[in-house]
TrEMBL record:
Family as reported in the entry's similarity comment: Belongs to the class-II aminoacyl-tRNA synthetase family.
Compartment(s) of residence: Cytoplasm
InterPro entries for the chain: Aa-tRNA-synt_II (IPR004364), aa-tRNA-synth_II (IPR006195), aa-tRNA-synth_II/BPL/LPL (IPR045864), Lys-tRNA-ligase_II (IPR002313), Lys-tRNA-ligase_II_N (IPR044136), Lys-tRNA-synth_II_C (IPR018149), NA-bd_OB-fold (IPR012340), NA-bd_OB_tRNA (IPR004365)
Official protein name in the record: Lysine--tRNA ligase
Keywords, in A-Z order: Aminoacyl-tRNA synthetase, ATP-binding, Cytoplasm, Ligase, Magnesium, Metal-binding, Nucleotide-binding, Protein biosynthesis
Presence of the UniProt keyword Protein biosynthesis in the record: yes
Keyword Ligase: yes
The gene coding this protein: lysS
Native source organism of the sequence: Gryllotalpicola protaetiae
Length: 507
């Protein structure tokens, strides 16, 4: 317990009027600081300060000091004031670093003098960034501290912090992530874990001989996935453009050009709904491997995720935010979509089952299909009967042909394609394919998609003549995969998608 610990504050949050009053008081303090430092480069927002170390470094070096012991080490450091108590001759403040680590600062009459102590009491508020200079000590209660001999405001906070002892509402966390990062350890840890996971993904790709590239985010034609695009207009070219829904068609062009193992961690934009697993703007990992197939790319995807688990959790057994443990280790299950559906539903569906039979079962189960085709019925029925029963990470293989227009037909099962979806924690985490590289068949698939688009399907793709031309120069047999970074974090942390995104889009 710190020397300045106070009981948890149960008072209600300040009203808008009270906040405005506090803001006015703080603005007056800012004016005073600016006036005191006129022409000296200091004031409420100095350009630089003589910082020699950080709060985490001090804790790492001197954390074992015994109570009432001094280190002899003089340091200069800065932090945000998140708690303080001012008494007659001694003021206590808890300074917080960006990573959430904290250190106590003790400002005493004996160390700084009467004028400096009084200025601290009058000018320093909760939320301010302050610079303190002094000796590292341990207080009589054993709290690691800085005995301050000099101090300066580093950045004056004009608005008061929210109550540090009360949980922010989800609305506030999403709209004001900076407050969430100041207050909540889980928010800071999620940012760190995302960075670790992304670094791990890059390291695993590099270890397997993949090259990272960047593809256009403004495109003259959308493609690479069945999704509704965002449309914008280029004044320079006087034409409508689409925000990228997937980097697939450009990455495949790279494979045609001889980059046999290629990947991108790309920003994608899909003009669709937002819920606990979907965001209109998201980050995606997409990769293609020449002379691989959907089996080899499944092996790679499992390695990517398991390596990321080690990087963020130190183990394949990850601990989610609610304390639940989930095992991402071992060899993951691989099941057939048709076989698992038939087993769960007591049916005998095949790729040639008439649409009427599928529609009848869907109607009995209360399933509605907007643009009814065989594949959409099979996939919706599979989600209804099978998805909820998956408890381990599972590759669901061999999808209907008509819902996967960019995928190679199965080498031995007519009417399906060599595609898998990876389900973890009940949601789709990644998808993989044996890629369609025959330009003649690809054109036929694009034409079929264009017919759906003409019939009103906003998610259907158009005929991309430039991509077809690239394929006509020859693309080697390849495996490909896509995985959302946000969803990878969901699997590693147990959080919803908006918690894994640093600044999520909200209404």
């Amino acid at each position: 317990m710190a020397d300045n610990d106070q009981p948890i504050d149960e008072t209600p949050e300040p009203t808008a009027e009270e906040i405005n009053e506090q803001k006015a008081v703080r603005l007056a303090k800012r004016e005073r600081l600016q006036a005191e430092a006129a022409g000296l480069g200091g004031g409420a927002y100095p350009v630089t300060l003589p910082v020699t170390t950080t709060i985490p470094e001090v804790r790492a070096t001197w954390g074992s000091l015994a109570a009432d012991e001094t280190s002899g080490e003089i340091v200069g450091l800065a932090g945000r004031v998140v708690n303080q108590r001012n008494t007659g001759k001694l003021c206590f403040a808890v300074l917080q670093a960006g990573d959430g680590s904290r250190l106590q600062a003790m400002v005493s009459l004996a160390s700084v003098g009467e004028e400096s102590l009084q200025r601290w009491k009058e000018l320093v508020d909760l939320g301010d960034h302050v610079f303190v200079h002094g000796e590292v000590i341990s207080s009589r209660r054993g709290e690691l501290s800085i005995m301050v001999d000099d101090w300066q405001v580093a950045a004056k906070a004009i608005l008061p912090l929210p109550n540090m002892y009360k949980e922010l509402s989800e609305e506030t966390r999403m709209r004001s992530r900076y407050l969430d990062l100041i207050q909540r350890e889980q928010a800071r840890r999620t940012v760190v874990n995302r960075a670790k996971a992304t670094a791990s993904v890059r390291a695993t790709f590099s270890k397997n001989g993949f090259l990272e590239v960047s593809t256009p985010k403004l495109q003259t034609m959308h493609g690479g996935a069945s999704a509704r695009p965002f449309v914008t207009h280029s004044n320079a070219f006087d034409t409508d453009l689409y925000l990228s829904i997937a980097p697939e068609l450009y990455l495949k062009r790279a494979v045609v050009g001889g980059i046999d193992r290629v990947y991108e961690i790309a920003r994608n934009f899909r003009n669709e709904g937002a819920d606990s697993t979907h965001s209109p703007e998201f980050e995606m990992i997409e990769a293609y491997q020449a002379y691989g197939d959907y089996n080899t790319i499944a092996d790679l995807t499992q390695q990517l995720i398991q390596d990321a688990a080690l990087a963020t959790n130190g183990s394949h057994v990850v601990t989610w935010a609610d304390g639940t443990e989930f095992d991402l280790g071992g060899q993951w299950d691989r099941i057939s979509m048709y076989e698992s559906l038939n087993e769960a539903a007591g049916t005998s569906f095949t790729p040639s089952t008439p649409l009427e039979e599928l529609a009848a079962l869907a109607a009995r189960e209360g399933i509605s299909i907007t643009h009814p085709i065989h594949g959409k019925y099979i996939e919706e029925l599979w989600e209804h009967f099978v998805k909820g029963g998956l408890t381990r990470p599972t590759f669901v293989k061999d999808f209907p042909l008509d819902t996967s227009p960019l995928t190679r037909e199965h080498r031995s099962i007519p009417g399906v394609v060599e595609k898998w979806d990876l389900y973890v924690r009940g949601f789709e985490l990644a998808t993989g394919y044996s890629e369609l590289v025959d330009p003649v068949i690809q054109r036929e698939r694009f034409v079929a998609q264009a017919a759906l688009a003409a019939a009103g399907d906003d998610e259907a793709m158009r005929v991309d003549e430039d991509f077809l031309r690239a394929l006509e120069f020859g693309m080697p047999p390849s495996g490909g995969m896509g995985m959302g970074v946000d969803r990878l974090l969901m699997a590693l942390t147990g959080l919803g998608i908006r918690e894994t995104i640093l600044f999520p889009l909200v209404k």
